[in-house]
Amino acid sequence: MKRHTIKFLCTGLAVLVLSACGGGDSDAPPPTVAGPLAKYEGIWKDGCLSNNRETTTISSSNNGAALAVTFKDEFFDKTGCTCAVVATGTYGPPQPPMTVSYKETVANASVKLLTGQTIQATVDRISAVGSGASMTYAGTGVTGPTIVGGKQTWRIAYSGGNITVQVEPLSGTIDGALLLHNGALLTLTPVGNSTTSYVVETQAFR
């Protein structure tokens, strides 16, 4: 908000100066309009799952027609994602680990929520591409990595238990859609090859 306020004030000041000099430039370019994906920018947190929570950071690029997406995977010492963080997973290079491109906006799409309710909503169809980066873990509860069956695994210990996490490179291309609904960011998976029918895959909040 501060950035936008400063920009607005500077624009207003420029208008005042030009008016004092006899008028402004009628050929001034129109203000830039945010692209369709800019509204998804922000830091989004998934709900806590036992000891684990994922945070997704989204930044827009290409005037809001694309997104750069990074992830942080945290394990806490106590159930309910409380007490100290004992393991933090982040993706290495190449960065960003995921890029998202805008395809089209679809009105009146059918979306099945995690509650089982189906709503009609306007969604943004996207294509997500992984960079091939792999997640590595660090922290007091981390042991690894270990190669098991050709797969990289990490052992994460916390109070009362431990978990083994298998890591694979984030690669490939996935088509889906995004939706803001009741303050939540919903990632959507199409039903079959449909472009108008979706189910919610993940839900996160700022």
Overview of this structure, please?
The chain is mainly beta and 206 residues long. It has one helix and 13 strands. The strands form two sheets. Strands 1, 2, 3, 4, 5, 6, 7, 11, 12 and 13 form a ten-stranded mixed sheet that branches.
Short overview:
With 206 residues, the protein is mainly beta. It has one helix and 13 strands; from the N terminus they run H-E-E-E-E-E-E-E-E-E-E-E-E-E.
Map the helices and strands.
Blueprint: H1 2-20, E1 42-46, E2 52-61, E3 66-78, E4 82-91, E5 98-112, E6 118-130, E7 135-138, E8 142-148, E9 151-158, E10 161-167, E11 173-181, E12 184-190, E13 197-205
Parallel strand pairs: 5-13
Antiparallel strand pairs: 1-2, 1-13, 2-3, 3-4, 3-5, 4-7, 5-6, 6-11, 8-9, 9-10, 11-12, 12-13
Task: Please describe the structure with a list of short key phrases separated by commas or semicolons.
9% helix; mainly beta; disordered N terminus; 10-stranded mixed beta sheet
Q: Give me the number of helical elements.
A: 1
| Structure class | mainly beta
| Unreliable stretches covering 5 or more consecutive residues | 1-25
Total separate domains = 1
- Beta-sheet strand percentage? over 45%
Largest sheet: 10 strands, mixed
What general outline do the C-alpha atoms trace? globular
The arrangement of helices and strands along the chain is HEEEEEEEEEEEEE
Helix content: under 10%
How widely separated are the two ends? Answer: 16 Å
